[in-house]
Amino acid sequence: MDDLPLSEATKPKEIPAETRAPKVEPLLLNLDQAAALLNLPPSTLRTWAWERRVPCVKLGRRRLFRREDLERWISQHYCPVRPSRVDTLEPLAYRMGVGRPVGKGG
Fold it and tell me: Over the stretch 57-104, which tens digit does the pLDDT of each residue have?
């Protein structure tokens, strides 16, 4: 059989973007998907779900996770940056006794 180029009639036609079905994200994530979203080992997420430390939906024996609940849970556990200890403490030389008045006795 000869390798002939495809004619215009036999080439697959591109579907216009406006007629394609929109990509739908699942309403519930399974354990592996949720663990990947949170960058956690699945075993840790399973334990946290069992301990009710992370929001989940229990359907039968399965625990599933809503993406919006996980995103809200992440934002609730956000730790803001605070000033470094260097900015809030006395200079190191002063803490080490340099420049400090020497007490009597000894």
Answer: 999 999 999 999 999 999 998 888 877 765 555 566 666 666 656 666
In sequence order, the 6+-apart residues with CB closer than 8 A to the CB of 70 are 29, 34, 37, 38, 54, 55
Backbone φ/ψ region at 40: left (φ over 0), alpha (ψ -120 to 50), beta: beta
Q: Which two tokens stand for residue 90?
A: 């006395």
Query: Kindly report the CA angle at 66 between 61 and 69, in degrees rounded to 5?
Result: 120
CATH class for the domain made up of 26-80: mainly alpha
pTM attached to this predicted model: 0.56
Cβ neighbours of 20 (radius 10 Å): 8
Query: Structural domain boundaries of the chain?
Result: 26-80
The answer to whether the beta carbons of residues 57 and 49 sit under 8 Å apart is no
Assigned token pair, 43: 């075993």
